[in-house]
Amino acid sequence: MINTMKPISSKEIRETFQKFFEKNDHLRIKSASIVPKNDPTLLFINSGMAPLKQYFTGEAIPPQKNLCNSQPCIRTIDIDDVGDRHHLTFFEMLGSWSINGYFKETAIKLAYDLLVNHFKFDPKRLVASVYKGNPDLKLEPDHESAKIWQSLGFDDDHIVYQDHADNFWGPAGETGPCGPCTEVFFDTGDEFGPKYKSGEHFDDTCRYIEIWNAGVFMEFNKEKDGSFSNLKFKSVDTGSGLERMCMVLNNHQTVYETDLLKPLIDENQKQIPNISTEQNRILADHCRAFTLMLAEGVRPSNEGRGYIPRRLIRKCLVIIHQHRAEFNFDTIFTLIQ
Length: 337
Ligand code: GLY
Prior knowledge:
By secondary structure, the chain is of the alpha+beta class. Helix content is 32%, strand content 22%.
């Protein structure tokens, strides 16, 4: 992989993101607990916008129109993908929002500015996805976002129209605010698959790694019956996984080489020398996730929220017992940031 970018720590990435948005009139707000408050649709906070849902529906007034933060998230739908290059159960999401404020053009231009001028990405190694539309749902293709990316120099080989499953985000839970989105992918190079050419298959699982959902254009509310109603006003919701951003900015091939996960990988290897790469990744991710859950007061149980840490701990113990290893969790706990 060719990369001219200098090493950068996860801490520096987090700060660069927040400071960029603060300089662009966003208020940095505190993150929420991973345990949702008054939201029966979610077991855990799964995105930066989840604790802010009521701002998008107009049920609560935000302290300012434009916000940013860094939010710990749990994605239980990704549990079975953990072990590949970049899926995690627990991750930190860098987010920015404009609630009834700016919309597509400003959101995309801010994303480009941060990525290219501050994080110093080569724009030739970025691909933007936009929403293809869905006639059954009477939702139009998002040509407007495509045109904005074009105006920034993205040609047809760097803009991909994707369907509803890929480019319509939300709601976080069964009901709530949602909308079409535009995502930014980093091209990790020829060794990870064929280069995308306009109209051909876009490999968003290996070669191209999603680094930022640079704009969910919140226009709809998904109702209990599955229909979409219009929200009272439009908003922008963005989310970027810190671990993935740290991976690509440091020219790493996996999130497990980043400063957030490498100490855990090294310690697992030390304690269980014969552990496979995939088992090591699962152990590192799952230890990190269940530690946070326990720290937030969630206790393993057979049902509901508690079933998640139970499942994660059980998977860790299966790996440890398979190797008949003595495993010192205390050392692991001290390495979790
Ligand atoms: N809320 C946007 C995302 O999680 O991708």
